[in-house]
Write a structure and sequence with these properties.
- Helix 2 runs antiparallel to helix 6, helix 5 packs antiparallel against helix 6 and helix 8 runs antiparallel to helix 9.
- This protein has 207 residues and is mostly helical.
Length: 207
């Protein structure tokens, strides 16, 4: 399956200053952007945040296509939100909300595109480490997130592969032909993942 090709904002190798920046600094930038955009800031502050994110995107030497891809995926949603806010509150409010959404999403994409997944998961484990005193297992939590990040693109790719195969056989309108193979493939993938974890002694409940 070609699910890996659908991983949005996957790591893009590079040696830019953004790639070399500490994870906590990039996470702090994302937090600041979100606060500026959604904590009652005006349209000019949201515009400034969006401009800063776009500049940082190119400073990270990321392809321009990766700037457009999340916008394309959210285009219908953005148009609906923008039209509703324009109707209810006027153009400035509509732009503030749209700019805030775009700035936050693109900042998150910069974080994931310039940070290897292993470092992201290690940082996540450190973030939830204080919850260990309440019985939480940070490493198990990070493992769960890792499996989710690997599984979602695989399933999306499975849907695309099955759709193309059904279209080639003239069965694009057959719901069974488009869903049953995906279910079988997903179950097989889950079993293989479970067996791989069990073989390494991972994912098992502690006595």
């Amino acid at each position: 399956m070609r699910g890996h090709a659908h991983l949005i904002a996957a790591y893009h190798p590079g040696n830019s200053v953004v790639h070399r920046a500490p994870l906590r600094l990039k996470a702090a930038f994302l937090l600041v952007v979100a606060v500026v955009c959604f904590a009652g800031a005006g349209p000019f502050a949201a515009s400034g945040a969006l401009t800063a994110v776009v500049v940082l995107h190119f400073a990270a030497q990321l392809p321009a296509a990766r700037l457009w891809k999340p916008i394309r995926l959210m285009l219908v949603f953005l148009l609906l939100i923008g039209a509703y806010q324009f109707w209810q509150s006027g153009p400035l409010t509509a732009w503030r909300i749209l700019a805030g959404i775009l700035a936050t999403v693109l900042a998150a994409n910069i974080l994931t595109a310039t940070t290897p997944v292993d470092r992201l998961l290690d940082g996540l484990a450190r973030l939830v480490a204080p919850l260990r005193r309440f019985g939480a297992d940070p490493e198990r939590f990070a493992l769960t997130v890792s499996l989710m990040l690997r599984s979602i693109p695989f399933i999306i790719g499975a849907f695309d592969d099955v759709r193309d195969a059904a279209r080639a056989r003239g069965l694009e309108r057959n719901l069974r032909a488009r869903t049953l193979p995906v279910m079988i493939c997903t179950v097989a993938y889950a079993r293989q993942t479970g067996e791989a974890l069990a073989a390494r002694g991972l994912g098992e409940a502690e006595e």
